Amino acid sequence: MDELTPLSDATLGRLPGTVRRPRYDRARLSPGIVHIGLGNFHRAHQAWYLHRLMDDGAAQDWAILGAGVRPADAAQRARLRGQDCLTTLIELAPSGTSAEVTGPMIDFLPVEDGNAALIARMAEPDIRIVSLTVTEGGYYRDASGGFDADDPDIRHDAANPQTPRTAFGAMVAALRRRRDTGAGPFTGLCCDNLQGNGAVLRRTVVSLARLSDPDLADWIDATCSFPNAMVDCIVPATGPKEIALAQGFGIDDAAPVTHERFRQWVMEDEFCAGRPEWERVGVTFTDDVHAYEMMKLRLLNAGHQLLANAGELLSVETVAGCMEHPGLRHFFQTVEMQEIAPEVASVPEMSPQDYVALIVRRFSNAAIVDTTRRVAFDGSSRHPGFLHPTIRERLASGRGIDGLALAEALWARMCTGLREDGSEIVPNDPRWDHLVAAAQEARTRPAAWLESTGLYGDLAHDRRFAEAFQAWLSQLHRDGTSPILERFAART
């Protein structure tokens, strides 16, 4: 292999000609956005849109400052600052791979107890957007979806508003300073897979502020913007294989990102302190984000759960591998088309059925090594968020829920912690110990899963759903996953 080029501003000119690089002068960029939760998805998605806009000669005053509030974020900070916050993006298409280096992020703020540096930087008037990717389960919601004021982190931030632990506490502290100095509000932009994610972010920030300063909470609610947004791009985790892919392009990158060709970003045009002209690079602005997010959450994100739990049980390591498995593919397509798509409305230029066909193509892309473990992570947030609303709607209208009930039974079976071959499923949920205990009890009493997890609410007492779920789970434990998928196929 030829000598690798370490990624940095100084070496951009030495990169191979096949690698696209920034066409803008990074030294002339100034910050306008703080992004909290600087992972792969943000760099492949939101940062890419800004990068392409900068390539077009625009948005030079909207550069990104990375941030994190977890101790583990310090390692990411070290990796990225060690390469001038540049990222190699590697597009994995069925026809081949391509690479580009992106540079809209110009620094990563210190990760520290109390978040002083983060608060101080968000309080400066040049920061006009604070965006977040902190996972679906990171918004301190209770079982009913409301604000969880009893969480220990929230209680800490309410009692210690100047030295918060959470991203939201840091936002509240920064907004207090902005109000007091006259710097004005900023826009809070959620980029996580949550229905009504802007409303969720508003509720979290305003509710937390109200615990310590009701007047500040009123000011935030009245002046800050929290647009709803829908994001979509399949972005696998980075490991040795992804680093090797970057090296194959001659680049020594400590944190490259692989991604599919498809991207989508849909949001409301509600930005109290201005925004980049993202529409110039393909972002959709609409008053009906809900329809787009409903289609994506109910079909794509739910589809991941249809595949991943069964895939884990069958030791199928990737989403593309699941799509190659006849039983899994049939189960996925049948539930998507017959039970979920009828509950989803069309959006401009896309019907639910066409969207399912698009998902099938995307999930079948073997170049995307997206693991079943990754998409199965945090089922205790993803099942209630992506699958349970459809189950409730179909029950209310008297429609069938057989496949959806099987999906829930497969999750319960997976949470016993053992695959069909006897190998261990290592913890994969913030509530893993609780889920395993409920799943083990449900081996002999299937209703225990619905009763013990606290995730089903009224569904646990719905006779049609409970009976279908319990029947499937009993059969899974007795007969195994593959025979049950065959049985499901025979019934459909």
Q: How would you sum up this structure, described in words?
A:
The protein starts with a strand and ends with a helix. It has helices spanning 40-44, 46-55, 73-81, 116-122, 152-159, 167-181, 197-212, 214-223, 240-248, 289-313, 319-324, 326-340, 352-363, 372-376, 379-396, 402-414, 432-441, 447-452, 463-479, 481-491, and strands at residues 5-6, 31-36, 63-67, 87-93, 96-102, 105-108, 129-132, 187-190, 229-232, 251-252, 257-259, 264-267, 284-285. The chain is globular, with a radius of gyration of 23 Å. The strands form four sheets. Strands 6-3-2-7-8 form a five-stranded parallel beta sheet, with helices on both faces. A three-stranded mixed beta sheet has the order 5-4-11, sandwiched between helices. A three-stranded mixed beta sheet has the order 9-12-13, with helices on one face. With 492 residues, the protein is α/β, with parallel strands linked by helices. The mean pLDDT is 96. It has two domains: 5-286, Rossmann fold; 290-491, N-(1-d-carboxylethyl)-l-norvaline Dehydrogenase, domain 2 (Orthogonal Bundle). It is built from 20 helices and 13 strands.
